[in-house]
Amino acid sequence: MKQGDAIEYLGEWIRNKTNLGTDSRPACQAVVVFFIRNCEVFSQMKFSSKVTPYKKSIIAKFPAVLSKLGKQDMTSAELYKGMRSGGLDIREFMDIMDCLDALNKIELKERWFIILVEAQ
Question: Where are the alpha helices (DSSP H) in the chain?
């Protein structure tokens, strides 16, 4: 099945399951595209697996980032500069920020200011 056909089919499935009218077809397809794109992004991250050892995964870099933020809040540029010396490239840095934000370990404030979220 071609990707376009899959998007159409899944969009139609969502529309039928939610009892939406035909005018909602583009919105349902947009939801499908969002989830496909989301999966593509996360599949490119280096998570620990049989292929990627833990030490080379982005998860192994979480403690260093959280430790740096534990000392003081900082901008994303300041944090990246501090982490870059450890061999972290910008893509890995953004992946780590996405994951830590999704896990509610950091909070992005205005002007890309990052703060550590206290455990509750």
Answer: 3-17, 25-43, 62-71, 76-84, 90-102
